[in-house]
Amino acid sequence: MLKNKKIVLVFGLVIFISLPIFSNSNKEKASETSDKVTTFTAFFADPNSSWNGMQDDVGKFLTEKTGVTLNVEMAVGDPAQKINLIAASGVYPDLISPKGDNGALIESGALIDLTDLIDKHAPNIKAVLGDQIKRLRHSYEDQSIYFIPTLDAINQYYYKVGGPFNLQLDVVEKLGYPEIRTLEDYEAAIKAYVEKYPTIDGQKTIGLSLLADDWRIMISTTNPAFFATGAPDDGEFTIDPKTFDAMLHYKRPAEREYFRWLNHMNDIGLLDKESFVQKYDQYLAKIAAGKVLAVIDQDWEIGQAVNSLKSEGKFNRTYGKFPVTLDESYKIPVFQQAGFNGGWGIAITKSCKDPVKAIKFLDYLASEEGQILVNWGIEGKHYNYNEKGERIIPADVLDMKINDNNKFKKETGVGNYLLSLRYGDGNKDSTGNYYTTNYPEQILSDYSDFEKKVLKNYNATFWKDLFPKEDEFPVKPWGAAWNIPIPNDSPITVFQQKEQDIIRQLIPEAIMATPAEFDGIYDKMLAQLEAIDSTKIEKEYTSYVKKRIKLWTE
Amino acid sequence: MANVEASKVDLFVKKMYQQRYLYLMSVPFIILVLIFNYIPIWGWIMSFQNFKLGRTFFEQEWVGLANFIQILSDKQFYLVLRNTLAMSVMGLIAGFTIPIIFAVSLNEVSHTGYKKIVQTISYLPHFVSWVVVAGIFYKLLSTDGGVVNDILMKLGFIGEPIQFMAKGKLFWWIVTLADIWKEMGWNSIIFISAITAIDPQLYDAAKVDGCGRFRQIWHITLPGIRSVVIVLLILSIGNLVRIGFEKQMLLSNPLVFDYSEVLDLYALKYGLGLNRFSFGTAIGMFSSLVSVCLLFTANGLFKHYSKESVM
Per-residue pLDDT averaged across A521-547, rounded? Predict the structure, then answer.
């Protein structure tokens, strides 16, 4: 008897252990009525450390207004892995913002076509888009609309210079505000300052530091090559504005000269020896120490370090932006317009509990009221109207916004809800105020006194004043080539990985080599690119560019 | 003859019946192994398909050996295979000799308290994650205030700081060194415990016979832990191609790419990273097959020459 009991016990244990494997753990899909608060699950590829579970001021207001709260999961590490997992599992969050890694989701049919939903339930989104709704269509072959664009704002007018040629304010100040227009000027300024001040705060002065940590090599090392030689940002390819032929931008002869200049900078010891070895955090630490005179990088990549310089009051160690090019015959095209790109944004998945409510939520965010809310906050709390009807941020709120932006975002939620279509900087709403908080006067108040002094000596008010303006360049009819969706099984996908493997190794090698070896290594790189069929792939890419132009104009 | 066979089977069944509870007790573990180790092998089928997400098994496209052909015709594959094998062989040699030497010499220390402290300190780095270890090594070998460069400069061996991390040829050594620093103490635990299991009478007898310290080590300690060493060695040889990728990924940088890419990184980048699940699976399958072959070869060799084996 006793023995039998034991057997039963063992069997029971086995069944108990194996039960969860066979049961389906995903059964929570109770339908909720639309007047109650609906919680949508969401996944964002861009982690936002200020996200507060919608418990901030704006979040609470939004829930009250739309009956929606979001339960957000954000990417940890590489978002592509998580997104593929989501696509493979078939268990989708209600909303998903995958940025560039949307291929697998679309391929597996996870996303719903929003065309009808927008048509029926989203008057605000339609109004904001107008004619440009064409640009939301995915591709020439698949004209469904999967995303409400969140990355690219409508009619964005750029006030701020993002980069890439930064020079410490102290350098130009101490040198008596020399003209910084070409790489030669840039180099001369760095050189003169290093000679004059070999150490900064007791640490060795670093002339120029670059970053090559993984994909960041593109931002700091390879993309500036086309900026400095007058070509706009189209990712790894450069597009001929007349024939729309794509070509790997490294093949442009002028870019070889840019890299040759970097090689020269290394040769004369002005380039940080650790440039291609250092990791992102080491790079930031160096900048935050104030000892790096020049960084060739975008604002968003060095922002963290610059903020810490500001909070320590080292305003002379923050950076000014200069329109540097290879020589005077080029114009730096950082303000060349690509038009509205559609592209990356937020999608509603097949498993969404209530797609209509979801699109209405996004539509509210795109309304004038919603846009003012996400950009400015709540009236009476985060902004007021003065007697002239101008929207004003109270001094204490502004102080927190500038000096403790992380806390500001977390508490107020301003800037946390850029989850739908919206107007970019420089657009005015029905009250005659700007939709966003980036407008000339506001930007000016962000500048430190030191920065203003430097700008004054260059006869400028904004950094942008030093740069060639939008109207000096034609609008690119293909938008930004880097966000043209390429199907997963296209040979371009594998090519780009191989191309990156070659570039990420040989560009640093060429720069670190002696000047005599430079051409040999650069030629070797071009030969290796040819060996992986770059010419064939360029033709393929050209066809995608042409198809996009067709999609947008038809 | 048939009779003998039959009686053998009878005996087996009888014995099985006698041991029925033992068999029953092993059932849960067999189920676990089936679920976690055998059922996933089903996924290998993917490597003969052009697998796409969101399609059922029957909708997938069959491509035969195309994925394997693609792998074997990729030059980079041989490069990563070379790196993988080089680093794992170096790791294997250093990862055995050094912990054994450490264990043996620690065993010779007579002060128990000191012994305990040293042992504890030596295995603590095992619990430090690779991210941190990589950070420490980067800092140590940095040209900007790195300890190693500073010492070499002060001693006058070099005039200019050396860019250790930018030298491809040094990469394998750095990885091996970091691995030893992290795992030496941990790996020696099993040898230390094997040494303590040796009968102390043997040492006494050896002393009577006039053996010195080194003779004792050579004739008693080392033969005493021989079987443990061989079992561990065979198992590690089986894992030669699977050295993981954390160390390589964290310690590498674009300049040493030709020496730092390993099989798993390659599978990650060109397989999963590009949503080429079939390609990634094919690489995984390839390395599993190689592992099994290596394991059996090593096992067979040891069985033949030293009469010790795991199977």
Answer: 93
8 Å CB contact of A10 and B253: no
**Cis ω before A485 (30° cut-off from 0):** no
Residues in chain A with CB shorter than 8 Å from the CB of B163 are 273-274, 277
Residues from chain B contacting residue A92 (CB–CB below 8 Å)? none
Query: CA-CA distance, A215 to A402, in Å (whole number)?
Result: 30
With contact defined as beta carbons under 8 Å apart, do A58 and A416 qualify? yes
- As a dihedral over the C-alpha atoms of residue A227, residue A231, residue A237, residue A239, rounded to 10 degrees, the angle is 170
Residues of B in contact with A88 (CB under 8 A): 53
Are residues B83 and B226 located together in one domain of the fold?
Answer: yes
Q: What pLDDT sits at residue A21?
A: 46
pLDDT in tens, A49-75: 888 888 889 999 999 989 999 999 988
Residues of chain B with pLDDT under 50: none
Contact B53 A494 (CB under 8 A): no
Distance from the B271 Cα atom to the nearest Cα atom in chain A, whole angstroms: 10
Residues of chain A with CATH 3.40.190.10: 38-156+344-435, 165-333+484-553
Check whether residue B47 and residue B187 sit in a common domain.
no
Tally of residues, chain A: 554
CATH number for A165-333+484-553: choose from 3.90.550.10, 3.20.20.140, 3.30.200.20, 3.40.190.10: 3.40.190.10
Reference A361, options A351, A344, A373; nearest CA is: A373
**A276/B166 Cβ within 8 A:** yes
Q: What is the DSSP pairing of strand A292-296 with strand A165-168? A: antiparallel
Mean per-residue pLDDT of chain A: 87
Q: Do B24 and A10 touch (CB under 8 A)?
A: yes
Same domain, B38 and B77: no
B82 shares a domain with B10: no
Query: Over 70: is that where the pLDDT of A8 sits?
Result: no
Could you tell me the pLDDT band of residue A371, with boundaries at 50, 70 and 90?
Answer: very high
pLDDT at residue A151 greater than cutoff 80:
yes
What fold characterizes domain A38-156+344-435? Answer: D-Maltodextrin-Binding Protein; domain 2 (3.40.190)
What's the ipTM? 0.76
